[in-house]
Design brief:
277 residues; globular; UDP-N-acetylmuramoyl-L-alanine:D-glutamate ligase; 10-stranded mixed β-sheet; 10 strands; binds ligand NPW; CARKD; binds adenosine-5'-diphosphate; binds magnesium ion; alpha/beta
Length: 277
C-alpha cells in the first residue's frame, strides 16, 4: 500500500496552457438531487465548477432549478423528468458523468441509472456514488463498460461487495473488485483507500472534521473536475481525494467541523498554490 503524497498531487495539478479553452477542461454532468436531497447535487456541481471543470450541467428535479441558478449560475440545468431521448443526448454530450449524489432510490432514480449505464461509452468516465451505489446493489445491476470510478463509504461498499465492514480487508476488497470488472474504487472512511488493479493507495490526511453530510457529495465533484481536465487515471483520482482532505485539514486548524461549502470555496486558491509550487 502506497501513501498519497503532496509531490504526487503536484504532478497532477499543473498550470493551464495559455492557449486553452473551457472545452479542454471537461464537460461534467451531475445526475442526482431529488426533492429531498437537492443540496447533494448542488454541492457536487459547485465543487466541480470550483475545481476547474470547463462546463458543468446538473440533471436534477425541476424543484432544484431556482436554487441551483441562484447559488451557481455557472451550472446548466436539465430536468431529469425530460423525455428519455433528451436525457440520453445529454449523457452522450458529457466527458465525465457523476450519478448518485442525492438521487434517491425511487423507480425514476432506477430508470435514470439504467439509462446512464445503457448510454455511456468506453471513452467516457462514469463516477457512481451515493444512492446509485445502493441501487446497483439492490437491483444487482451489471456495471457498464466505461472508465468507471466507484466512491462508496463503508456501508455502501458493504451493500455492493457483500463484505461486512469488519471484513473489508485489502485482499477481500481486491477480490470483490475483480468480480466487478476492476473499476477504480475509492473506499471512503478515515484514511480512505483507493484501489486500481493490484495497486492500493492510502490517504493519511483528513480528520473527523469531514464527518458531516455533503462531504462525499463534494468529493465527487472534485474527482469529476480533475478527471475532466487532467485525464482519468489513478493519479488524478488520488490527487482529488488528497485535495479534498488537505483543504479540510487546513480549515480544521481553527474549526471543529469543516463544511462542504467551505471546502468548495477554498478549492481555486488551493489548486493555484499547488500548481505554482
Ligand atoms: N444535503 C443533502 O442533500 C445530502 C444528501 N445525501 C444523500 O443521501 C443519500 C443517502 O446517503 P447516506 O450516506 O446518507 O445514507 P446511506 O447510504 O443509508 O448510508 C448511511 C448508513 O451507512 C452507515 N455507515 C457505515 N459506515 C459508514 C461510513 N464510513 N460513512 C457513512 N455511513 C456509514 C451509517 O451508519 P449509522 O449512521 O447507522 O451509524 C448509516 O446506517 C445519498 O444519495 C447522498 O448523496 C447525503 O450525502 C447527506 C447530505
Ligand atoms: N473520521 C473521518 N476521517 C477522515 N475523513 C472522514 C471521516 N469521516 C468522514 N470522512 C470523509 O468524508 C466523506 C464522507 O463521504 P459520504 O459518507 O459519502 O458523505 P455524504 O454522502 O454525506 O456526502 C468521505 O470522503 C470520508 O472519507
Ligand atoms: Mg455519500
Amino acid at each position: 500500500m502506497q501513501v498519497i503524497t503532496t509531490e504526487m498531487v503536484q504532478k497532477v495539478i499543473v498550470k493551464r496552457p495559455a492557449n486553452s479553452h473551457k472545452g479542454q477542461f471537461g464537460r461534467v454532468l451531475i445526475i442526482g438531487g431529488n426533492q429531498q436531497y437537492g443540496g447533494a447535487a448542488m454541492m457536487s456541481a459547485e465543487a466541480a465548477v470550483n475545481a476547474g471543470a470547463g462546463l458543468v450541467t446538473v440533471m436534477t428535479d425541476q424543484i432544484n432549478l431556482t436554487s441551483l441558478h441562484a447559488r451557481l449560475p455557472e451550472a446548466m440545468f436539465v430536468d431529469y423528468q425530460a423525455p428519455t431521448n433528451q436525457l440520453a443526448q445529454t449523457i452522450r454530450n458529457a466527458d465525465v458523468i457523476v450519478i448518485g449524489p442525492g438521487l434517491g432510490l425511487t423507480a425514476h432514480a432506477l430508470m435514470l441509472l439504467q439509462l446512464t449505464f445503457k448510454t455511456v461509452t468506453a471513452t467516457q468516465t462514469l463516477l457512481v456514488d451515493g444512492s446509485a451505489l445502493t441501487l446497483v446493489a439492490k437491483h444487482h445491476l451489471p456495471l457498464p463498460n466505461t472508465q468507471l470510478i466507484l466512491t462508496p463509504h463503508q456501508m455502501e461498499w458493504s451493500r455492493l461487495s457483500q463484505l461486512p465492514i469488519a471484513h473489508q480487508t485489502i485482499s477481500a476488497n481486491q477480490q470483490s473488485l475483480a468480480q466487478l470488472g476492476q473499476p477504480i474504487l475509492v473506499l471512503k472512511k478515515h484514511h480512505t483507500e483507493i484501489y486500481h488493479d493490484q495497486a492500493v493507495y492510502q490517504l493519511t490526511i483528513g480528520t473527523p472534521a469531514l464527518a458531516t453530510g455533503g462531504s462525499g457529495d463534494t468529493l465527487t465533484g472534485i474527482i469529476a473536475a480533475f478527471c475532466g481536465q487532467f485525464q482519468t487515471s489513478i493519479a488524478t483520482v488520488n490527487a482529488a481525494v488528497y485535495t479534498h482532505s488537505a483543504i479540510s485539514d487546513q480549515l480544521a486548524q481553527t474549526q471543529y467541523v469543516t463544511l462542504p461549502t467551505q471546502i468548495i470555496q477554498a478549492l481555486p486558491a488551493f489548486m493555484a498554490k499547488l500548481s505554482q509550487s
